[in-house]
Amino acid sequence: MNFNLYPYNLWILYAALVLLVINLILLLKHALPLLSALKGIRPDLDHIQNNVGSASAKASAFGTKAAKDLKKITDLIPVILLALAIKKDYDQAEGSGIRQIERSAVNVYRKRSDEKKMVNKIAQAVSAKK
């Protein structure tokens, strides 16, 4: 079976070129609105990227501020706990007034120093066993 398409070779080539041109025209017809839409979207994307950049800068600044505040708070924790202990002792006492606050502060300070001594003794005993 030997087919000879010699007289039709050029017609087939012309038909293929016409189909190619038609496909290119359709592609451009659909691609040009897409390109124009992308050009319209570009400013919105730039705006979003700028907002993301400023938001990340604010978040990092907030993180550093929070770290500084946390350090201040951790420095105040012993004072706050001491004040709460004095208030608790004052509430449990029978008296009231400034003198009772002084007595409560003295009691809390004595208990605290006794606890520190006890903790030091336990630490020394543990380290001596090792």
Count every beta strand, where a strand is a DSSP E run of 2 or more residues.
0
The description of the largest β-sheet is: none
Q: What is the helix/strand order? A: HH
**In terms of per-residue confidence, which ranges show pLDDT below 50 for 5 or more consecutive residues?**
none
> What is the approximate shape?
rod-shaped
Quickly count the helices. 2
Radius of gyration: 42 Å
Helix content: over 70%
Distance between the termini: 101 Å
Beta-strand residue percentage? under 5%
* Structure class: mainly alpha
What is the typical, i.e. mean, pLDDT?
A: 83
Q: How would you explain this protein's 3D organization?
A:
The protein has two helices and no strands. The chain has 130 residues and is an all-alpha fold. Helix 1 (9-92) crosses helix 2. It is rod-shaped, with a radius of gyration of 42 Å. The model has no long low-confidence stretch (mean pLDDT 83).
Layout: helices, strands, pairs:
Elements: H1 9-92, H2 98-129
Descriptive keywords:
0% strand; 2 helices; mainly alpha; single chain; 130 residues
